[in-house]
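Quick entry, no commentary yet.
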Amino acid sequence: MVVEINSSDSSFILRVKGSLQFKCLFDQTDLLNIQKVISKAFEALCSDIRSDSCVFTLCDGSVVIWPNKDVYIPQEDITPNTPCVELSQWTQISEQETVGKKASKKKSKKCPGGTVINLGLMMETTRPGAPHAPHLPVFARTVRPSHFVSTTLPMDCVVCVNLGETIQEACLRLVEELSNQLDEMKKVTLLYLKGTSVQIPEPLHFLLPQPHGLVTVVYPSGAPDSQLQTARQTLHQKYELPEDKPYFRRANAYHFPNELYRDGYLRNPHLSLTHPTLDNGKVYLVQGLYSYHHYMQDRIDDNGWGCAYRSLQTICSWFLQQGYVDRSVPSHKEIQQALVDVGDKQASFVGSRQWIGSFEVQAVLNQLFGVTSKIMFVSQGSELATKGRELANHFTTEGTPVMIGGGVLAHTILGVAWSETTGDIRFLILDPHYTGAEELSLITEKGWCGWKGPDFWDQTAYYNLCLPQRPKVI
């Protein structure tokens, strides 16, 4: 399924997430019967979504909405005709805030183009019984061969809502989108069916270049990206996207601002910085997401010897989060083993505390990820001030983080501010020598991620820069 969402300053995103129980009983295991039973199961779920049992709840708030009961909302001060954007004012700011109280000052979460309001999807499991009706259970026992399938469907729908759109209008659109998503889940389930084995369909959101915006696609959760090549090619053609850059791999899925990263690493700390101002200057930055890797993470004491390893890990995280590779960020020992495997180091290197440099970073990227790199040589640090054009071109065309090693130190370059007319330059540096906690304000205020002038480099030391190149894949 593909749903396009274009958000702007005059609109916002309404998102509903939840789970539905999918159950099938196959009395016969021929393909036609299995397909028929699966289709009926999805149709039953669509009926549930359109029934009075469907409930939307405001995440981190106390608002409850029955969208199919003439949009029934039990809270005072809220009616079906209330502008939908006002739901954000009912989100609790802290645990101390009184439940159900309207928040006076709420900082809305931002998504591409505007606010995102999150709703939960629930289904009522009990209904009022008829007056004086008996409530005695009735059991029946039938013995016959059958195959029972029970799983959970992860529902996740988004709609773009105009600021003046009412709760009633928005919720009815969400019900329609949930029904459409179930229909697409049925198609995916039937397409990837293997006997009585059912692949759980999962919806993913992808942020595409304008004018497309946020797009939702349903994939089979059990199928690796390598088996979805044809589906991605079709999507690239539909949206007229280049076929040398991934947009629809799972790693490319859009990360909503209210969601936490489970691995604990900071993402893109440079985004909180103010760009330097240069006469006729332009800023050229890393493109996409990366994780900040530095000393003392992962329960490894690499203080004093692991800076290049950490810079390499930051680069690897970029390729992983852009969808170019499937394997995880390598550990220090995995990096060392890769260098042994390519014949660059002896076996005793694994488990040691020996330094590595730009050439080793280049070799590991090629060995573990199949990523090639260019090496830039600088005979002394003072020459780095003259490399603005080369670095600007790299961040424009490749957009990958750059590892730079010189003397006994390694850093990661995330961008440059450069004036073609004056030659003035500033370097955006991510410093792997940081040993503290993942505290963004401290990292940026103390300059562990920050803009540096040409005097940041040792003016007499030589430097080698590893400039990773993007693979040509989708």
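second:
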Amino acid sequence: MLPSRIHPGRFLSAAPLRRPTRGAAAAAGEPARGPGTARAEQAHKVVASYKPSKFDKKILLWTGRFKTEEEIPLRIPPEMLDRARNKARVKACYIMIGLSIVACFAVIASAKKAAARHESLTSWNMAKKAKWRKEAAIAAESKAK
């Protein structure tokens, strides 16, 4: 027995019940909206509603959206700033990747030079511990007197 919420005819019907999309309504010759909705949407839609800060202007310049700071309008669309921020984020990531690779090669080169001088972290650690033991022994002798 099926629960009361499930109707077998709904699952067994040949065509599913769907609302027509805007494209289907326009293709059928029906208006997709009422006559006053286009005007109401335009009244609420603000094209350039964001005033960029100095940092935002630097991002817009760095990403190549504008050539000079004077070209940047007083108000810009938020989508433009979002795209510029995303592009700046990607550029910064590429720069960090490049710097990480350069740093890896620098560490490898310095480690090879240290190995040629027969220096290692183990020898440094043993020398440091020997120095501490010597200082502790001197401190114990001074307390004993």
